[in-house]
Amino acid sequence: MTVGSVWDRVAEGLTVHGVDTVFGLPGDDMAILGALQRRGIRVVLVRDQRHAVYQAIGYGRISGRPSVCFVGKGPALTHAATGLLEARSLRHPLVLLSSGVPLGRLGTGAFQELDPIETLGRLTVGAIRVDTDTVLSGLAEAFELSRSRGRGPVIVEVPEGLPAAPAERISPPRHRRTSVDVPVPDTVRRARRPLVVVGGGCSGIGLEDDIIDLVERLGAAVVVTASGRGVIDETHPAFLGLSGLYAPAEAAALLPSVDVIVALGSRLEETATFGWDTALAPGCRIVQVLDDESEFGPTWATERIVADVADAVRTWRTALPAVSGHPTWAATVAAAHAALRGEGRPVPVTTRGAIPRVRDVLGEVDAALPTARVSIHENGLQDIWSYVFPSWIVRRDAACLVPSEQTPLGFGMAAARGVTLGNPRPVVVIGGDGAFASVGPDLAAFAEIDRPVLVVVLTNGGFGWLEANRRHAGAPFSFLGSRTVVRGLCAAYGLDREGCDDAAELAGSVRRAWRRAEAGRAVVLEVTVSLEDVAPGFEELAGDFPLDRPAAAAGESH
User: Fold this and answer.
1) CB hemisphere CA count around 379 (13 angstroms)
2) 532 occurs within a structural domain
3) Shared-domain flag, residues 284 and 380
């Protein structure tokens, strides 16, 4: 805990950039811990480097504060690589501090030597190695790179053995972004039956009301990608659920009628565009807005606009007339939304001895918790029910954390700790037993939480997606394991657990678990579910995706 080390300069630089919490696992050098504590920066220790990145993402994405984490060198960095991949895919600004071999030993095969610039550069938007004289400027560059166009993670390597940096006056950074007018494309002005797709690039930048105003002026339907969830109030009559892979049948049925798609802050990844190739009319135009030209993919967009999505939305919403779409389109969209919501909450199965249905689990949790909450999601086969509107609804006063297209197992479970530290609202985590178990020793962090947190674990033996594919292929082995793992882990780490394997007991189990969580603690609600209980459209799988359904079947009800 040496006073006056180079890490004191690092900590000083972090405070200048508004950092109040840092997540991580140090190497053998403990100097960073003392330096952070002396500056009043909260240190949250983890047991796995991946989880340091996941928790930092969760903290920053929900709180709006900087996401910063630290690890050692060599294998510590490669362990953190999955977290960097997720931050890059989410386009989430993050600074990862790492130690490194002394400058004089670079290229000598020193103990745990790894060049992050060469090895992990493709997973970041920048990698910087500082020396004694460039600590503060390197940090400033890292924060600027992470927030600039092509937002994402930046590695800052602090080599071992650097002498203490000399004191100097630090001026707080100025983040005054100049707004730029983005002309409304003629394609958008002429749209008669538009669809707005809201991607993850719209998250956390205060666009919620502006996008709704734009949607209403266009008379458009609006959907979100998985990582864009939480930007739109899902009770709005123009909302039709998630895009592509998770689209409800009622929304998919409207795709052939759409004449213009306006994609805001989305790379239009494979899951977001699943089924478009057969459903969209040949003349449909796709206008894609991204702030980084390198983010555009080779397909889909017929018109690419390189601009800050906030500038585009705010310019367009003031430039367009009150209503510019076809007069009947908005009514058609509202009717589709009403049809989806009209299904209401399904009548729960209450037969004694029956296995609870996932949709009933979500319904009971939704009814028990306040609407002003943060929901955190995984991407297992049974968890996907929470992606399908209206099985789970994110309302105006709520927030949401969803993994990116990369969907690393355990991201949501691990990120929950970071979310609770940066957010006063109740938290609900929805995932499977495979995701829960994958977090391993960092499950101990749940016992340290002092906010209302309900961790809903859907148990079927783990790895349901792989098992469903295995059965489809007719392979003789199995991916399912013991159904007592969650119970054992909760006992091992002292976690409060409520179990339920009977549909008739589901409502009572949810209420009991939430009452205990309301007292300010994390409670694990483990519910036994069936492997066959899958969301509509996922009954037959083909590897990473369900079997593609013909366009003619898009309007059929499931």
Assistant:
1) 17
2) yes
3) no
Count of domains for the chain:
3
In a domain, 348, yes or no: no
pLDDT at position 550: 47
Which of 66, 134, 119 has its CA nearest to residue 96? 66
Return the CATH number at 321.
3.40.50.1220
Beta-ladder partners of 430: 377, 456
**Per-residue pLDDT at 326:** 72
Split at pLDDT 50, 70, 90, the class of 108 is low
Identify the CATH number of the domain in which residue 372 sits.
3.40.50.970
Distance between CA 399 and CA 396 in Å, rounded?
A: 8
Burial label, 91 (beta-carbon count in 10 A; 0-12, 13-18, 19+): buried
Is 282 inside a domain boundary? Answer: yes
Cα(35)–Cα(212) distance, integer angstroms? 45
3-state SS track over 329-352: HHHHHHHHHHHHHHCCCCCCCCCC
- Report whether pLDDT(63) > 70: yes
Question: Are residues 306 and 207 both part of a single domain?
Answer: yes
- pLDDT of 558 higher than 90: no
Please tell me whether residues 335 and 397 are part of one structural domain. Answer: no
Which residues sit opposite 497 in a β-bridge? 524
DSSP letter (8 states) at residue 547: P
Q: Long-range pairs for 363-370 at CB < 8 Å and ≥24 separation?
A: 363/391, 364/506, 364/507, 364/510, 364/511, 365/428, 365/430, 365/454, 365/456, 365/510, 365/514, 365/525, 366/392, 366/393, 368/510, 368/511, 368/514, 369/426, 369/428, 369/454, 369/514, 370/425, 370/426
Of 58, 66, 91, 68, which Cα lies nearest the Cα of 376? 58
Q: Is the pTM of this model over 0.85?
A: yes
Predicted pLDDT of residue 516 = 98
pLDDT over 90 at 314, yes or no: yes
Burial of 294 (0-12, 13-18, 19+ CB in 10 A): exposed
Structural domain span for residue 94: 6-159
